[in-house]
Amino acid sequence: MTRFLQASVPLSLSSVSKRLSLSSSTRLQLRTFCRKMSPDSPPLTHSITLPSQLTEPVEIVAAPNISHSEFRSAIDSSLFKQWLKNMESENGVLYGGALSLRRVLIQGVDMFGKRIGFLKFVADVFDKETGKKVPGIVFARGPAVAVLILLDSEDKTYAVLTEQVRIPVGRVILELPAGMLDDDKGDFLGTAIREVEEETGICLKQEDMVDLTAFLDQSTGGRIFPSPGGCDEEISLFLYSGQVNKEIIEQLQGKETGLREHGELIKVCVVPYEKLWCMTADAKVLAAIALYEMAKKEGLLPHLKA
Length: 306
Fold this sequence. Notes:
8 helices; hydrolase; NUDIX_hydrolase-like_dom_sf; NUDIX_hydrolase_dom; ADP-ribose pyrophosphohydrolase activity; Nucleoside Triphosphate Pyrophosphohydrolase; ADP-glucose pyrophosphohydrolase activity; alpha+beta
């Protein structure tokens, strides 16, 4: 049965260097971030060297609208560091040396409190053989999770969805309970359980969850990329399956949830699983159905408790 949840003294740059015995790279970084900008000043810049192209430093440049603090936050962010790591991974763009990253233009930084939520930049990547630039506009938002919840009731299986206002597409969308990771700890399962509770009111246990994306080939990284042509978002899809009585289905239907103080306008929608594939255009739903059905066909799903 599924359970329900009821002021400091300023120091000059020279004095800081004397006290801390900074390395040359750290002094360069301080000079980069601490100089003041005027309308006629050159853009903020920073240089990094990647292990995959030691003789070709990468220039990081800030667009005119980017402040010193935003530029520093962007370069130090887990979003940007993970992107660079992906670029140099075994399946990465830079692996093998056929392509070269020469410049990154930081164009936009959206803060979620004290951390970066979204990062927009353009990467100049060139094919060494042809000299042509590869399209490199990036909207970075990082990892996320989604959960396919299947509830059996009176010999019928239902899927639990959320109806949400999605301004980027200008529509109200039926989709899986989902959310972004709030920190750099990589707690995908914990985030999935928390998002389900916030968006549906259903409280799940870790031992009852199945990672559907873990069935993907190891070369994929075990996550799906819904829009790799422009966005770095990678999603782990989880499955929960259980049995409930008809009253629970009725209680869930139309339930208003979400963190209203954060602008979340969410309504729970319960639909027959057999109709799920054609009731929404949410890519997470369609990917979860495909993974669930193929995993079931291949006998990969563990015995799910009632």
